[in-house]
Amino acid sequence: MGKKHVLTVPGLYDEIKTICQFVMQGAEAAGMDETALFHIELACDEACTNVIEHAYGGEGGGDVKVSWQVKGNVFIITVMDNGRRFEPDQIPAPPPADNVDKIKIGGLGIHFMRKLMDEVSFSFNPQTGNELIMKKKIKTEAS
Amino acid sequence: MSIEQQQVGKLHLIRVNGRLDHNQTPQLEAHLTRLLDAGHHFLVTDLTQTDYINSGGLRCLVSAWRKARQREGDLVLCGLNNRLQEIFNMVGFDKVFQIYPDPEAAQQAIINRG
């Protein structure tokens, strides 16, 4: 298993770009192609936005700890916070967009994470807080 | 991010240059709200120079689209690159918005509707 790279930043919207760049640099070094880098950026963006909005209830509620690691041909991203328990199952999936009057625009972030990554799991520990793990298989430009 | 605007008859063309992320979407939101509140309900949002959008950016566009429709107008999109198109498809918003390849096609479609 490769080394775990860790970054901790304050839970501020301005820091999301820093987190995304940190993870994308790792993904690029791991050999991810351009499309995968875009997917990872968006998934991290949505994950951190959820931490600030839902776990901390706004900016300045605490830190966001992010790590990345390569295990075999899988890129693993972990996002941790000390905020309120995040229960993704209580956030409904976006409804089908065939009825335009009923379009709701909540829950898109989790929907994106699940679509863009190969595996997404949430857990909560009262001592350590929320932990989100996202995994994506490494498909290089050559493969 | 920068926003450029051009009026062609009753419609307004809004060019978004840059990223529609958490820091920059509020600028577009304020711009679209200003136009809608001023009675301009036919809007073309040109995303040719937009290389990133997140859920907040989508929320901004849907919200403006909804307001325009409520006022008998419309908000259509054009110039989505493959990545943006993928994001719209992922949540079914390609079926919500009228999406055209370029500003000319979008303008013509609105003009043809009368």
Please render the helix and strand layout as text:
The complex is a heterodimer of chains A (143) and B (114).
Chain A: E1 5-10, H1 16-29, H2 34-55, E2 63-71, E3 74-81, H3 108-116, E4 119-125, E5 129-137
Antiparallel strand pairs in A: 1-2, 2-3, 3-5, 4-5
Helix pairs in contact in A: 1-2, 2-3
Chain B: E1 2-8, E2 11-20, H1 25-37, E3 42-46, E4 50-53, H2 55-70, E5 74-78, H3 82-90, E6 99-100, H4 103-112
Parallel strand pairs in B: 2-3, 2-4, 3-5, 5-6
Antiparallel strand pairs in B: 1-2
Helix pairs in contact in B: 1-2
List keywords for this structure.
A: 143 residues; alpha+beta; Heat Shock Protein 90; B: 114 residues; Transcription Regulator spoIIAA; six-stranded mixed β-sheet; 4 helices; 29% strand
How would you describe this structure to a colleague?
The complex is a heterodimer of chains A (143) and B (114). With 143 residues, chain A is α+β, with helices and mostly antiparallel strands. Chain A has a single domain (5-137), classed as Histidine kinase-like ATPase, C-terminal domain (Heat Shock Protein 90, 2-Layer Sandwich), CATH 3.30.565.10. Chain A has helices at 16-29, 34-55, 108-116; strands at residues 5-10, 63-71, 74-81, 119-125, 129-137. A five-stranded antiparallel sheet of chain A has the order 1-2-3-5-4, covered by helices on one side. Chain A is globular. Chain B is α/β, with parallel strands linked by helices. In chain B, 42% of the residues lie in helices and 29% in strands. Chain B has helices at 25-37, 55-70, 82-90, 103-112, and strands spanning 2-8, 11-20, 42-46, 50-53, 74-78, 99-100. The mean pLDDT of chain B is 94. Chain A binds chain B through residues 13-14, 16-17, 35, 38, 41-42, 45-46, 49, 94, 96-98, 100, 103, 105, 108-109, 111-112, 115-116, and chain B through 21-23, 52, 54-56, 58-59, 62-63, 66, 83, 87, 90-93, 95-96.
